[in-house]
Amino acid sequence: MSVPPGTGARVPRVAVIGRQNVGKSTLVNRLFGRREAIAHDEPGVTRDRLELETAWRGRRFTVVDTAGYLDDAGGVQGLARDQADRAMDRADLILLVVDARAGVTEQDGALAKRLRRAVVPVVLVANKVDTAREESDAAAFHSLGLGDPFPVSAMHGRAAGDLLDRVVELLPDAPREVAAPGPGEPVFALVGRPNVGKSSLFNRLAGEERSVVFEEAGTTRDAVDAVVEWPDGHVRFVDTAGMRRATRARGIEYFSVVRATRAIERAHVAMLVIDASQGYTVEDKRIANIVIDAGRGLLLVANKWDLVEEKDHTYADLTRAARQFASAPVMRTSATGGRGVHRLPPVLLDLHARWTTRVPTSKVNEIVQQAQRERPTPRSAGTLHYATQVSSGPPSFVIFGGASEPDPAYRRYIENRLRRAFDLEGVPVRVRYRSRKRRQRATR
Length: 444
Fold this sequence. Notes:
The chain is of the alpha/beta class and 444 residues long. The chain contains 12 helices and 15 strands.
């Protein structure tokens, strides 16, 4: 059963650990109650820590999915192992997942040796026990010295409820008290093409090595959240996988694109990170369209600015290109060196404030009437009589009057007037028209 982030005391954390391809992500999805972590037959799919808050029998806790653990791994797998280490160090309970069909492996033994020294409870979960006849396969894992193996089938849900009962039973009664995010926390998603520096920027903003950063395109596969405390309160950052055109995404990449799109939809403002040294590409424009169509605020972040040669020319081009996307602001950064990153928080908070803007009806009417005086509506559309804001996030308006909806050019004119008047640059403005209904002659 999935639940929204809570408030108050910090909820306990349950780290799901194990070597590659033992079914950790499938188990996380089973415990969470829906498919959220990417589960795939290919080893090494999960690389970052994916944290999902859930509840069972009235107890809330966070399930942390981790990458396949390899003791002697280097490169990106070594970084993923470090993420798993951090998850174990911060956990209140650890689930060590093993593959009952494959039997005890050397890597299982190495992990068990480390976990026998853990100061928190450890549950040994023998996965892929699909029937009662296969439970005997789990007995071999007694040799790991972590107690009785708990046989489950994450794929089919066998004994998942019993495992959740055991998890709740072992959760600490009094978790540490920390400031928790409120229900109205701003949510910022980092989106962009693969290998443009999103994860490096994410780690700078989150203040820790939260996402795996490696010089290989497509390192991040899941959307990864981090709640950060700023002077004005908590904010949530969501790092996402590099977005490719859907027709080019295959297999695991397809699910990554789906997760990134969903991250945009649950965010309030999206930071579109582009590789400034490559310029503003067709793919960047496509992602910007996705953000605007989803009704989210947009900030263009020109990363790797230290690699740009014609800086003035490049910045002017980006600013010009941003006009078609709600006149989104453009910021320049170098995530690896930290240049310009400190300027992002106030701009993000300002965009969030614009996204949640509420304008008095009298002000809306004043702007619409003034716009008509300076540029009358087309004769076929008729006069617009009344306007009001009906919602925020994004700001949405309804305009009444006229015989029909104005043409696209005039609709853009009204939208731009509203945007300039109420300082809504970088935020989509939704405008609906309700034309005057002509009285129809009654028929007998």
